[in-house]
């Protein structure tokens, strides 16, 4: 087993965030799309406040009988903050480096991104692209098809 976030801490508070946000769910299967729909509704409900929306989504995920059955993970981010929501409704923020990864190739992408951040002058987009290429080269369940969104 692997510890993705060695210094992770649960998030409970609320803060104002930009209304522009991006999300990622591995492979965007049916469970991921259902979860994303719920997240979008929360983002609308809280007028784009990302942290408040994701905290409320995590609360719902832990308590709602239907949501608890979803086998999904999600990363959401705006220009200031990013959050990881796990399949059991845990809500975490990344370590100081700000790097998050989910999906079958997450461990490979995370390790590659951390190494690139520490030892290169690459941009965030270049780091993501290279880390995902490395993950896809190693993990049979990760492919080289990548869509990047920048905030």
In brief:
The chain has 151 residues and is α+β, with helices and mostly antiparallel strands. It contains 4 helices and 4 strands, in the order βααβββαα. Among the domains are: 22-92, Glutamine Phosphoribosylpyrophosphate, subunit 1, domain 1; 106-138, no CATH class.
Provide an overview of this structure:
This protein is an alpha+beta fold and 151 residues long. Among the domains are: 22-92, Aminohydrolase, N-terminal nucleophile (Ntn) domain (Glutamine Phosphoribosylpyrophosphate, subunit 1, domain 1, 4-Layer Sandwich), CATH 3.60.20.10; 106-138, no CATH class. Helix content is 39%, strand content 9%. It is built from four helices and four strands. A four-stranded antiparallel beta sheet has the order 1-2-3-4, with helices on one face. Strand 2 (74-77) and strand 3 (82-85) form a beta hairpin. The radius of gyration is 15 Å and the shape is globular. 30% of the residues are buried.
Q: What tags apply to this protein structure?
A:
Glutamine Phosphoribosylpyrophosphate, subunit 1, domain 1; 151 residues; four-stranded antiparallel β-sheet; single chain; alpha+beta; 9% strand
**Unreliable stretches:** 8-19
Question: What is the helical fraction, as a range of percent?
Answer: 25-40%
Biggest sheet: strands, sense, closure? 4 strands, antiparallel
| Major β-sheet strand ordering | 1-2-3-4
Secondary-structure element pattern, one letter each: EHHEEEHH
What is the secondary structure topology, with strand pairs?
Blueprint: E1 22-24, H1 30-45, H2 50-63, E2 74-77, E3 82-85, E4 91-92, H3 106-119, H4 124-138
Antiparallel strand pairs: 1-2, 2-3, 3-4
Helix pairs in contact: 1-2, 3-4
């Amino acid at each position: 087993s692997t510890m993705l976030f060695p210094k992770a801490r649960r998030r409970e508070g609320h803060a104002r965030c930009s209304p522009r946000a991006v999300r990622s769910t591995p492979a965007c299967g049916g469970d991921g799309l259902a979860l994303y729909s719920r997240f979008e509704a929360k983002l609308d409900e809280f007028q784009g406040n990302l942290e408040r929306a994701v905290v409320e989504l995590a609360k719902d995920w832990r308590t709602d009988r239907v949501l608890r059955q979803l086998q999904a993970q999600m990363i959401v981010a705006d220009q200031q903050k990013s959050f990881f929501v796990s399949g059991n409704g845990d809500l975490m923020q990344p370590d100081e480096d700000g790097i998050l990864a989910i999906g079958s190739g997450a461990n490979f992408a995370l390790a590659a991104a951390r190494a690139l951040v520490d030892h290169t002058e690459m941009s965030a987009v270049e780091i993501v692209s290279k880390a995902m290429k490395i993950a896809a080269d190693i993990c049979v369940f990760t492919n080289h098809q990548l869509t990047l969104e920048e905030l």
